[in-house]
User: Fold this.
Amino acid sequence: MKYSLDLASQVLRKTPLILEALLCELSEEWTYESEGPGAWTPYEVVGHMTFIEESDWIDRTRVILEHGPSRVFEPIDREAGFERFKGVDLPELLERFADVRKANLLSLEDLVSPESLSKRGIHPDFGEVSLDQLLATWVVHDLNHIGQIVKTMAKQYTEAVGPWRAYLPIIDAD
Assistant:
């Protein structure tokens, strides 16, 4: 599928609602447990997504639109949200994510037109990238982390499902 502002916005608008529906009012056993050492908890994923929402997508969009390939994007610390939101309860964090996402979608409407999607910028690791690639990545980033949360939660019942594990590939997915 080719990138489309309209199609992308459909997913980006839904993500806060999906996270809220999936995680709000769950016990900490669901939201503060990971798959194992080095893996992120659902709470950490939401912290990461919120931090990235505050500091990545729209900031990098502006860099592309204002500077093009003459300025390299600032590197992003993927785990900075862990410390930034330490001690913030999950409902508050989900609300923060929803608020920043709403503001970012309004900014996206103001900043980006179909004609600007081919503009280029410089990523510190990948080199030259286009605006439509950045914005497509925003959508897939959401979907990736929703999948990560669901997989982490499913793995909490790895032993509990007994022989049905054979029919549940999510439990053994990397």
About this structure: The chain has a mean pLDDT of 96.
